[in-house]
TrEMBL record:
One of its GO terms (molecular function) is peptidase activity. This is Pimeloyl-ACP methyl ester carboxylesterase. It comes from the Bacteria. InterPro entries: AB_hydrolase_1, AB_hydrolase_fold, Carboxylesterase_BioH, Peptidase_S33. Belongs to the peptidase S33 family. Residues 74-349 form the AB hydrolase-1 domain.
Amino acid sequence: MKRMLRIAKVSLLAVAVLAVLAIGCGLGFRAYRQQLGARALAIQSPNGVEEGMYVKIGGIDQWIQIRGEDRSNPVILFVHGGPGGSTLPMSSGWQPWAKYFTVVQWDQRGAGRTFRMTGESVAATMTLAQMTQDGVEVAEFLRAYLHKDRIVLIGHSWGSFLGIHIVKQRPDLFHAYVGTGQVVGRQTFEKQFDLVVARLKGLAQAADNKQALTELAAISVAPGVSMTKPDIVEKWAKALSLPPIEAFQPVGPIPPAFMPDFSLLDWYYWQRGLSFSATHLRGRNGPMVHSDLWSLGTDFSIPVFFFEGTEDIVTPIEPAYAYFEQIKAPRKEFVKFEGGEHFIPFDRPDEFLAQLIAHVRSAF
């Protein structure tokens, strides 16, 4: 018995040592890849800018990152989606953008490094009105800090819904608005629901699952039912192994896991911020369902561009186009990315940049 105990202790010690060595090697390899990434993404030009900082916005410290090869270039403020989906770890594909634009990423209230600083103390302020004001203050800061009269706002997904509110409130701060994965309001998610149910019906038909077909048919017959029967969709999405509609693979020289200057603690708060923001801003009680862009009016005093993937199932193209058709602006363009899905700034960054140059930068 004593011999067996000694063998067990030695075995456990060996396993612990191997585990420590494996973790150490993994961390060392990650640090090495991050160093390589930092060199690849470094801004080398003498008139460039590469900064990250906390700025007092809306009464709290909020994180922004500024990168560009020439300070004289137009400034882009990228308003991320999610809600809570900070773009910092997945934006290495934007490196070519830095040649033509100064790109600003902003971790919104409740997201990423901003959430790391504040935690859940901002829960009561997670409102569309407050975050609209935050966006206005970020734009005002950037104008002063980068010495620009106006800037370009790109809004993605939730950020497109928030972005329209921001430019509507203070159009004088912006040169142009670019929406991608454009959310209009309830109509967007009703169309999304229809597409998801159609996919599930196809999977159920292929599997000859009569129960699934019956339950899915029952929730798709009445208009507006999408907001009251998500439990059925979730049930059959799991049972029929529907791939996550928001899954994507970012394109760029640095995989998100090895993004430089993004620690494991940053990843922890990135995930927590995503969950926290979703609790307050998504779902049946969120502002994207209980309000829509139509209520803000369709007159804009700045150019408006929509860059939309034709195969986007998260924020389908049809509601965005219907809204765009009614927009009155000094200039407007609806650019379709054939075969593109929801994350075209990340999985087709070079094509996205080409359209930014053609439609936005050419106006400067």
